[in-house]
Amino acid sequence: MxxxxxxxxxxxxxxxxxxxxxxxxxxxxxxxxxxxxLGFVMMPGAMYLSLMVGNSGSMxxxxxxxxxxxxxxxxxxxxxxxxxxxxxxxxxxxxxxxxSPFQGLLWNQFFIQSDFVNAMxxxxxxxxxxxxxxxxxxxxxRTFFTKAWLAPIAFISLAAIIQYIDNFGxxxxxxxxxSDVEELPFPMAPVAASGITAxxxxxxxxxxxxxxxxSIGGMLGMAYGLIYVxxxxxxxxxxxxxxxxxxxxxxxxxxxxxxxxxxxPMNLTLELGLIITGMVLxxxxxxxxxxxVLATMILNPALYRHGILSNWQPGMDVLDTIYANNIxxxxxxGIGLTVAIALIxxxxxxxxxxxxxxxxxxxxxxxxxxxxxxxKPGAWSxxxxxxxxxxxxxxxxxxxxxxxxxxxxxxxxxxxxAGFPWKFFxxxxxxYTPLISYASTKLEGIAxxxxxxxxxxxxxxxxxxxxxxxxWFAPVPMPNYGSQAVSFRVLxxxxxxxxxxxKTQLITVPIIIIASLVFSNxxxxxAEVPSDAYPFAQKMWDLQAKLSCLTFSSTxxxxxxxxxxxxxxxxxxxxxxxxxxxxxxxxxxLPTLVLFGIVRGLCQGMPAGIPLEVIGALVGRFYFRxxxxxIWLKYVLVIGAGYACGMGLVAMVGMSIAILNKMMAPLxx
Length: 669
Description:
Blueprint: H1 2-14, H2 29-52, H3 56-77, H4 84-99, H5 104-113, H6 115-119, H7 134-140, H8 150-166, H9 170-181, H10 190-199, H11 209-235, E1 251-252, H12 254-257, E2 267-268, H13 273-280, H14 283-305, H15 318-359, H16 363-370, H17 379-384, H18 395-416, H19 422-447, H20 456-463, H21 482-493, H22 498-526, H23 535-552, H24 561-565, H25 568-587, H26 593-602, H27 610-628, H28 632-668
Antiparallel strand pairs: 1-2
């Protein structure tokens, strides 16, 4: 019953969008202009916002939609409409630009100078190709254009180039296998494609509601963005502290409620987009997150009174509370719970696979049998035969790209990290990466969910016997290509030829590398990172550094906080709890998606955004879905895209004013 209910809900996602009959090349001269615009206008804005308000995923989405809407409006005023394929290429290009490879240098300089990192004895062992030592940084001032930063810049540039090449490797192979041969539906791929289709609509469109929904979302985003982002961005450029009518990144209730809810992290993010997110995500997964937060409000005080959460002290804020609780309980319990989730997810993939193997003995026939469609022979021929109209390239080229990129990662890691057993790298590339990537792609294709096996990297580093922290910074070949397969499915749904993406990367990547370095340096020049000028970084980076050090300490000689936190009995308890809850939900016929949400709410992640997501899920399901029917899901997808666009547009204007004011201030005074 639970499985049937879950499949019925996900089936609504599968029918949202189908590929068009004709495929086109989305790359043209407007793409070149778009690359320059993204690199030197949108990228610095997204970098600024990620330091200021965080939530980089939403900021990336906002930047993508802002770029599309601006180019679409310019084209319309030139009496031309952008094709859907051109819009997708702009969307894809914006995603590349927002990755901003050199923004990591800002984190590196903070990490190496952190008092906590130095006190842990980790900063001294950070390799020079990651960041120079703190004394060298302070002597040179806030700039990356010095000799000491040449090695980190070269390393990031080389890694970025290899990564972009790798985009057409194993992820493309698994896309061809799961989409063309097994014909899996990829239920979440239409989310991005729906917004792109909306912007490609014209006045004579058969579905004018798309543009109306996008406009409604855009106005909501602009109105809220004026208060939430633009006001603090502009006022922060000329006042000692920015004016925030809505606290960024969250309101912390932990100290005030510590008497009633000891050792319980309690904070709240007042971001309107979270309500829309709650309407978009699968309902029971969101409800599971809310259940997880409520469970911590009962569990944490009990654990504290029994002396288990012993590191927590009254008066601690939410960040210190999360860190202390991780050491005492939640790191071990969370590992066990996530391992259980990974095994359950793997079982969801392997169970039908084994069943179909017994029934038919063919990969292609098995998938079609599960989907209730007639069998079609020729799985191998379908895999190796390229769809010329779609612009496919050979799967053997894709496999060759994977061999090349993986060999590059292994060679680079072996050269940089002396003393680490290279056989571990080979095992990652030959066994772990293909298996986890196929399983993840399979789960994305069936249920729209990704899958990871947690702490594989950490366990292998510990078991290798290696001592030191340099290995944690190495480019180890352990990617999960499931998300790349989904991106190729989105490419197919928008009718865009694969070669468009290849040409786009050739033009965009050099611009991204140059612009990312220039604007990372500019943001550091404007103000210390982190500082009051960048409130999200000021709040969150210290916690991130502490959690990173907790993991890095596992390969250091002497005592380790990681092994102190890795309590076997709590780890086993987490695994038993996860499997037991899944079995109970399945036996009672309840939605098992609840379990995936509980992991997020229970395992000491930030509870800040979950309350608004739950509100959105409840309002969407019990009001809007009743009012509009099943088409509401299509409506809210496009509204969400419009909201991101409106929020991003206002934010970019505010950020531009702030940067101009910062740059002109020395000239005025």
